Amino acid sequence: MNNDRKMLYQNKMANYAIGISAALFATGVWSLNFIIPFVIGRYSIFDFALFRFVISGCVGAIVLVLRRDRIYRMGIKDMAVIAWLSLTGYVGFFLLVSSSAMLAGPVIAPAILSLVPVVLSISGNLYQGSVAWRSFFIPLFFIATGLIVLNGYDYTMHRGYQLLPPYMGMLCAMGAVILWTCFGLFNQNALENRPTMDSSVWSAMLLVASAVEIVLFFPIGSSMGLFEIPTLGLSWSSAHSLWLWGVSLAFLSSVGGVWAWTIASRRLPVALSAQLVVFETIFGICFGLITQSRLPSFIDIGGIVLLIVGVVMATRVFYMSHSYTQIKHVE
């Protein structure tokens, strides 16, 4: 009996180790989005978006070919849902995240984006009402204090590389939070309404749709001066950074990150995996500090700690209360 318990415990710990490692990998590669504007040279974030999403779209097309037996007939409504989700959760979200990092600095952007799990929890609670709103007061106090500390300090450290003021970057980051919240809620609802849909096929269709959308936008964006590819070209001598980062993130972030997070979600409790999302903020801020060639100040560390504690507390409050409600329902 003791041997059985020991084996179960070892299997559980092994699953936790694999799940946590996968979650750290996923959040690490996702956080690279925050530094893209600072590593692609003279090219714009629109150039990078075109490059990245076309490559990841090709990967998605290969997945669809390999899983063609799991694709059911798609209607106009299905295609419209996929187009909307890919626009908000992929193309639009990436452009807003990159813009926020470029305008407000690569520290503020991931700090504000850490609010995503909290906003998702609060949005879910609006529908379910499973958590008393007073339970969020202390976590939100920590979050607000952390954001004020980070934003107030980093605002004076960074003035962005564009003519627009830094607060526009904060607005872009908030817009990204709204887009990702909408994507999370609508994507979950779309999959619930399509119970026979294979999740890998669904993800592949989103990748293909995002590639089609950015390609269709290319002529319009070029006429507006948003793309530098028509002027700079794509030769290795001038576009090596675009090639390296575009290919890397297409596979690591769009494909590898999703795959790794799927592994983490299957091996870890929901409450734990939801809290591990904050590592995207930690990695993003670390990479941002590297691009700024500086060490974190005591104010940076204090703001980050307050923010992360608040996010973890808010996420834990929601999921622990939700789990308790499910247990009572079973009883």
Automatic annotation (TrEMBL):
- Transmembrane stretches in the record are 16-39, 45-66, 78-97, 103-124, 136-155, 167-187, 199-222, 242-263, 270-291, 297-319
Superkingdom assignment: Bacteria
Keywords carried by this UniProt record: Membrane, Transmembrane, Transmembrane helix
What InterPro entries does this protein's entry cite? EmrE-like (IPR037185)
Q: What is this protein called?
A: DMT family transporter
